[in-house]
């Protein structure tokens, strides 16, 4: 279920979203420029290796803790990068618009840190480097669903080679998405993660952080300028609801 379009009106350019995408793309281009042996050492240092911090024998050095930050800017391949950046591009601008640029940046990093901690606690003995922005982006999804639960999303579901498009509420999308993380996450608890795979608990931890931090991170409505007449989509309220809905604008 791939998010394709969202309906929340924004008033400010998403400079932080652009900056984060540029940083992730730049870091990935640097990764692919490294020889395999150098890349392996690079990922051991700057991706997140849970056993280095959470195993019983762990004795992390002060510089090792930087991996909780740097891992969220690294990716394991082009598809990994494109999917994460696409999702950030869909949900990030509306959240940045409501939080403000500075708050959104700190919020994004906080969600990424929470995702790394959740992954480490769920896989304390893993020596596989974990990397990717998906934990932090999961926090953005959680915040979006908390701030705009009735907003409409267009999602694409591929059936064989035929893409099908559906309209769903943001809260319904987030609920389905979260269940698709929790179920395999529970199934993988206690299993050997030596072969790598998807960091389900990073997604769950990031989403939970985004959902919980959303009310505190959001700026007061008085801090926003009014909407101009040409902002938003015809037939939708500024918070993404259809114009026939009820409730205050956000």
Automatic annotation (TrEMBL):
It is found in: Membrane. This is Rhomboid family intramembrane serine protease. Residues 63-215 form the Peptidase S54 rhomboid domain. InterPro entries: Peptidase_S54_rhomboid_dom, Rhomboid-like_sf, Rhomboid_protease_S54. PANTHER family: RHOMBOID PROTEASE, RHOMBOID-LIKE PROTEIN 10, CHLOROPLASTIC. GO terms for molecular function: peptidase activity. Keywords: Hydrolase, Membrane, Protease, Transmembrane, Transmembrane helix. It holds the Pfam family Rhomboid.
